[in-house]
């Protein structure tokens, strides 16, 4: 009786805190008072309840992840999403070697094979982040082998920048592979060892050829792999992309390298980058999902996984910005750069809710 009363009391508090009405079409299937209290806590941070539009979405993948990640629904089978029409359209375009073919390429910048790495990164992101594919799928296995086929003796996944080091794409690709189930793979550890060695003196990462003031033509015209000038400062765009791999890994997120780089990234939120690639401070507020370059959502997602909290003034500033930009319908109508055909508003809103829940539950 006391437990029933406690659950009922907590339920009423939750319903009050998120301002639900009796005619709401969304029912939160929460099984215990602890989960209810956690929901009440993080939802109370926001001005409007984001759960109804996410849970009631006609996009089955959005509704699935909202139930699993935000409400805490147990016994969910993510493989149900693999057969969705949009997922299968991506799967059917995979090439025999595990890649996806880039639709148009500029031979004056990079080779067709290296362009295909970019397209494979894009589509691997869709499958892993939007449909929950993992290494039990032959599609993911082939894509992983395609990428690991570009791993050098040093450990990086090379090619998108020709013969030049590209720690940002190496980190972003590794993030997806880790999420797909390759955290314990020896090749993954080899990448992390390389990332540790290629850091700048300040503990962050930059594009090595940019630290030498080289232009993009170096991708094709420079036969040597250029070593970085480590005395130059970190790039928040590059560091944010690399940190996504560390944040995704249950052990490496606790490493000294990750914590040091996290502090650097945190210090540069809302600021201009040190290098010409995506240098404008305005680009912190141009978003994409799956994550591509570093923006305020991808950065705070990684930082929250690394253990940084809103006790840090810059983290609090970021969360306050998200709270201020929430729309009355509960979602975030933000400026997006990519993947508009995949209902960016819903995915960006889901990603934002995951961060808020992680920080305030």
Q: What does the model show?
A:
The structure is a single chain. Helices cover 51% and strands 0% of the residues. Residues 1-26 have low confidence and may be disordered. It has 16 helices and no strands. It starts with a helix and ends with a helix. The protein is mainly alpha-helical and 361 residues long.
What tags apply to this protein structure?
361 residues; mainly alpha; disordered N terminus
Q: What's a quick, concise take on this entry?
A:
This protein has about 350 residues and is mainly alpha-helical. It contains 16 helices and no strands.
- Portion in strands: under 5%
- Give the uncertain stretches in residue-range form: 1-26
Which structural class should the secondary elements be placed in? Answer: mainly alpha
- Biggest sheet overview: none
How many DSSP H or I helices?
16
For the secondary structure, the number of strands is: 0
Helicity range of the residues?
Answer: 40-55%
Order of helices and strands: HHHHHHHHHHHHHHHH
Structural shape: globular
Computed over alpha carbons, the radius of gyration is 21 Å
Distance between the termini: 27 Å
**Average pLDDT for all residues:** 89
Which helices and strands appear, and what pairs or packs with what?
Layout: H1 2-17, H2 33-43, H3 51-55, H4 60-71, H5 85-92, H6 112-131, H7 138-148, H8 167-182, H9 186-197, H10 208-211, H11 218-221, H12 236-248, H13 256-267, H14 296-305, H15 313-325, H16 344-360
Helix pairs in contact: 1-2, 2-16, 4-16, 6-8, 8-12, 12-13, 12-14, 14-16
């Amino acid at each position: 009786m006391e437990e029933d009363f406690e659950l009922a009391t907590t339920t009423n508090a939750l319903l009050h805190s998120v301002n639900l009405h009796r005619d709401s079409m969304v029912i939160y299937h929460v099984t215990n008072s602890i989960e209810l209290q956690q929901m009440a806590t993080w939802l109370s941070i926001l001005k409007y309840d984001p759960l109804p539009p996410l849970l009631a979405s006609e996009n089955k993948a959005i509704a699935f992840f909202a139930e699993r990640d935000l409400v805490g629904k147990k016994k969910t089978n993510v493989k149900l999403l693999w057969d969705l029409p949009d997922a299968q359209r991506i799967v059917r375009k995979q090439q025999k070697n595990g890649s996806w073919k880039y639709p148009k390429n500029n031979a004056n910048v990079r080779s067709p094979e290296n362009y295909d790495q970019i397209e494979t990164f894009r589509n691997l992101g869709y499958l892993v982040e939007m449909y929950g594919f993992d290494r039990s799928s032959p599609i993911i296995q082939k894509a992983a082998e395609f990428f690991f086929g570009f791993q050098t003796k040093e450990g990086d996944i090379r090619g998108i920048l020709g013969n030049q080091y590209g720690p940002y794409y190496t980190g972003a690709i590794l993030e997806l592979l880790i999420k797909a189930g390759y955290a314990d793979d020896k090749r993954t550890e080899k990448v992390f060892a390389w990332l540790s060695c290629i850091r700048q003196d300040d503990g962050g990462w930059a594009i090595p050829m940019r630290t030498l003031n080289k232009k993009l033509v170096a991708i094709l015209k420079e036969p040597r792999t250029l070593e970085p000038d480590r005395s130059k400062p970190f790039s928040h765009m590059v560091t944010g992309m690399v940190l996504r791999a560390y944040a995704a890994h249950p052990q490496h997120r606790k490493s000294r390298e990750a914590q040091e780089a996290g502090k650097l990234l945190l210090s540069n939120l809302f600021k201009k980058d040190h290098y010409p690639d995506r240098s404008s401070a305005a680009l912190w507020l141009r978003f994409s999902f799956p994550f591509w370059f570093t923006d305020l959502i991808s950065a705070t997602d990684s930082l929250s996984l690394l253990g940084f909290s809103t006790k840090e003034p810059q983290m609090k500033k970021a969360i306050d910005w998200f709270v201020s930009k929430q729309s009355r319908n509960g979602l975030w109508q933000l400026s997006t750069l990519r993947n508009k055909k995949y209902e960016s508003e819903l995915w960006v809103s889901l990603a934002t809710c995951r961060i808020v829940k992680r920080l305030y539950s």
